[in-house]
Amino acid sequence: MSDPRRAVPRTDTVLADPRLAEAAGRLGRAQVKSAVVEQLAQVRRAALAPEAVVDAVLDALPAGGTSLRPVINATGVVVHTNLGRAAYSPAAVDAVVTAAGPTDVELDLATGRRGRRGAAALAALAAAVPAAEAVHVVNNGAAALGLAAGVLARGRRVVIARGELVEIGDGFRIPELVESFGAELREVGTTNRVRFEDYERAVDDSVAFVLKVHPSNFRVEGFTSAVPVSALAALPVPVVADTGSGLLQPHPRLPDEPDATTTLLEGAALVTSSGDKLLGGPQCGLLLGRREHVERLRRHPMARALRVDKLTLAALEATLTGGPTPTAQALATTGPELLARASALAEALGAEAVPTSARVGGGGAPGVELSSAAVALPEGLAEPLRLGAVPVVGRVHEGRLLLDLLAVPPEDDARLLAAVRACT
Ligand SMILES: *Cc1c(COP(=O)(O)O)cnc(C)c1O
């Protein structure tokens, strides 16, 4: 027997392979080299044939410069925080690629002078919500509300109902956010009930605004009462409404989810919201409302610290002006359509299709059940599917793995089928 180490190629020799030289150009030499060293260690242990090294290195390398993996969202949760919330529309994907190089994000090409940053994205947002006198975009929903608190209410008070002291997720709490920007909270009402008179009594010269927060991830039922924005608008201070989900107009399937247009028409002075929930766009925070407030926020030094990247502006404009987003498409899909797709997949896999009830997710509409359908598989497949070449994330329910199709675009059914076949 010859010593297997004799046959171990040199690192530089492997790196000189044209396919690896190409990968090094894309991913950087250091990353490719460390993958080569790792695979050569396998050869030394006689766990890999020397001639298979290049293929093994290519398999081990990420497809691009990011180690983030695209996954198929078969959870039945449309806006899934752990999966990056909203998926971009094809138009938004194109826009991001276009804007990646030097762009005219802050240059007026006609005059050669500096232009308003993201003018087209802001114009698209303004056009989508004519009820807003002015609009601005910041890093996320928390930044939008934080900016409002920090600029309008620093060293002053914000009145909020106790039932709207919301924790969004991962320990992020709206009241703590508002306080961290230098505003003091004045809580009114009880956990389940608040009346107009509670607000009225709490408003004095120290109060900068009344804050209305949409409980976007829970529902209080029973003996409850809240005061709508339309009533709060009669108070002598502005109403700031954190609507959460980024809906710009009412959505027929989500009648209880507040939208920016209705909230402004009801009299809110300022609406804050997220861009990557039901709007279906990039992570960003929308500020819409009265010109005097929006302009004050936009010109404040803090706004610079919360400003968005050109890629976000590009994706937001395309989300607003391009074709339907995957989020909108998911919300427009009916149970019978999904059951037909699930049945076709189930038949191809020798599995069962089942009707399910899916959810909007952390993005809003708590308690709303969307009729959907899934392919039911053995629970043991959950892990291999997550670890596959195309990771699939489903949900385990009553001992079965459900691959829910609500958040899976129909054009991904073939990839889903291939991913399951690869595991069975
Ligand atoms: C999601 C949400 C936020 C936070 O928005 P981010 O974009 O995650 O920062 C704030 N308020 C409400 C009501 C929300 O639903």
From TrEMBL:
Instruction: Indicate where the modification N6-(pyridoxal phosphate)lysine is found in the sequence.
Output: K277
Residue span(s) of domain L-seryl-tRNA selenium transferase N-terminal: 5-44
Question: Where would you find this protein in the cell?
Answer: Cytoplasm
Top-rank taxon of the source lineage equals Bacteria
- This protein's UniProt keywords: Cytoplasm, Protein biosynthesis, Pyridoxal phosphate, Selenium, Transferase
Required cofactor names? pyridoxal 5'-phosphate
Recorded catalytic reaction(s): these are:
L-seryl-tRNA(Sec) + selenophosphate + H(+) = L-selenocysteinyl-tRNA(Sec) + phosphate
Q: Which GO terms describe its biological process?
A: conversion of seryl-tRNAsec to selenocys-tRNAsec; selenocysteine incorporation
Tell me its EC number(s), please. Answer: 2.9.1.1
GO MF annotation, one: L-seryl-tRNA(Sec) selenium transferase activity
Question: What does UniProt give as GO cellular component?
Answer: cytoplasm
What sort of enzyme, by top EC class, is this?
transferase
Tell me which family the UniProt entry assigns to this protein: Belongs to the SelA family.
- Supply the HAMAP family for this chain: SelA
The name of this protein is: L-seryl-tRNA(Sec) selenium transferase
* Annotated organism of origin: Nocardioides anomalus
